[in-house]
Design a protein that fits this description.
The chain is α/β, with parallel strands linked by helices. It has two domains: 198 residues, ANL, N-terminal domain (Rossmann fold); 77 residues, ANL, C-terminal domain (GMP Synthetase, Chain A, domain 3, 2-Layer Sandwich), CATH 3.30.300.30. A hairpin with a 4-residue loop joins strand 9 and strand 10. Helix 3 crosses helix 4.
Length: 339
């Protein structure tokens, strides 16, 4: 074992635990064990999180793609602000092992840069951390000292994307899942095309549902069929539309909740989501769920009127729900569960 953590070269579990955390030490113990895999967990966005075996060879190949793309070297300072219990945190450690980079370890929190006073060359965050880091001048100043930032686990709200694109940070939304061992494509925040681009030799196609098929010649499994409906630009680029399993079939018309959410996001200052609701006439109808206290009747009517100006006739919410707090996955992704 040899890894640089918080500016110190560590060679033993005791050194890792003293400099970083027991969670990092536990992962390194597993990484250097005799098995050819480590245990991970699926995100839980479409069901209960499930244990999954992640091949170490695949993790190394995935790490190499990111290291090469962002030119990470032994002179790079990276930030680990995610739990090593999940794939995003594990992969930051593997990137450090592969590149020799200095990995600055801070406890996972909503404000990961609160105690970081130095420049960070490369970091990975979930959207909730980015949103909090954009909330005030002090946090934005710290975020501005990050050279490159990748964001995954859940979509970043459009308002946060706009604010982030105004900072001197090379920031990217990632596309991937636990099964692909971290991301396989990146979308530059602020890019008006909204296109995701493949890393390395990865290529894309679509199946008969228009769902993305990922071709990964560097992995043990060479092909992965997803439930993500996309607009395929070419074999290296796609535009994400939404989840096939989220599609609302309203009177025979297919409606994508994620597309509606993008169109109406500027109207909201709190979290919301679109989901299917059973309907006697249409089979399914569009429902809007809002987190927090109910709006007044006047404000609710005004909101629905403004939504109608932005979406098609079949995309207008016919039911509205208020939930005290949304259920979330471990990465902060909202679980679309109606009461």
């Amino acid at each position: 074992m040899e890894i640089t953590l918080n500016h110190r070269l560590c060679r033993t579990r005791e050194e890792v635990q003293a400099v970083a955390s027991s969670q990092v030490a536990d992962f390194l113990d597993e990484w250097y064990s005799s098995t050819n895999f480590v245990w991970g967990h699926t995100s839980g966005s479409t069901g209960a999180p499930k244990p999954i075996k992640l091949l170490k060879q695949d993790m190394e190949e995935s790490a190499r793609l990111t290291v090469d793309y962002f030119e990470i070297t032994d002179g790079t300072t990276m930030l680990l602000c995610l739990s090593p219990d999940y794939i995003a945190g594990k992969m930051m450690i593997v990137r450090a092992l592969l590149s020799g980079a200095d990995l600055l370890v801070v406890p996972p929190s909503s404000r990961p840069l609160a105690s970081v006073d130095e420049r960070i060359d490369f970091a990975a965050m979930v959207p909730a951390q980015v949103v909090e880091s954009l909330r005030d001048d002090a946090q934005r100043a710290r975020l501005s000292r990050v050279g490159a930032l990748i964001i995954g686990g859940a979509p970043l709200p459009p308002v946060a994307e706009e604010r982030l694109s105004g900072l001197p940070v090379r920031s990217y939304a990632t596309y991937g899942m636990t099964e692909t061992v971290s991301h396989v494509a990146l979308r530059r925040i602020g890019d008006p095309t909204m296109n995701y681009r493949a890393l390395g030799q990865i290529t894309f196609s679509v199946d008969n549902r228009d769902c993305l098929v990922i071709h990964t010649p560097h992995f043990a499994v060479k092909e992965l069929v997803t439930n993500d409906v996309v607009e395929l630009i070419d074999e290296h680029r796609f535009r994400w539309i939404g989840r096939y399993d989220h599609v609302i079939n309203s009177g025979g018309v297919k409606v994508f909740p994620e597309r509606i959410e993008q169109q109406i996001a500027p109207l909201f200052t709190r979290r919301f989501f679109i989901a299917a609701c059973a309907d006697e006439k249409w089979g399914e109808c569009v429902a809007l769920a809002i987190e927090g206290d109910p709006l007044s009747a006047t404000d609710e009517a005004a909101l629905l009127a403004r939504i109608r100006e932005r979406v098609g006739r079949y995309e207008v919410p016919r039911r509205l729900f208020y939930l005290p707090a949304f259920a979330e996955t471990s990465s902060g992704k909202v679980i679309r569960r109606l009461p």
